[in-house]
């Protein structure tokens, strides 16, 4: 895998060679080299291994996605800040199947680094809300759920958000039933 700076150096050298081709009169070659340099500029902003991991996740192949993410040895030097966010986001999705504590750390780090799409940010906050709710932090879960609802502008997560709200309402219901119930001693005191 190429470091992010190396990708820019390769793109700049290809552009320089394209300018040389233009000055020599080889216009077609110059255009081709400009287009070739755009690939490296694109890969600077969108990491190839993260793209391949997303493709694996779409097919529900968690092992394949983990394999592609493990090829990124040092994310801080190899990835731009938003790519680091997606790196942690993908790890959070994969780890959430088995370890909620690690998933919570990954999702929080992804949110702090930033995700470029509102849908991905809403999904991360929805997952964090589920983790907070399972750890009995209902106020934090409610706050994260409202943030996820605001970020889900296209309505792609409405079903999941509805389910989460229903689960929270069910858990918030009263545990004690008021009325004629109670222990025998309490009923005798009331005169029944």
Automatic annotation (TrEMBL):
Region (Disordered) residue spans: 168-192
- Its transmembrane ranges are 5-20, 26-45
* Keyword line: Membrane, Transmembrane, Transmembrane helix
Record-linked InterPro entries: TPR-like_helical_dom_sf (IPR011990)
Domain of life per record: Bacteria
| This protein's name | DUF2892 domain-containing protein
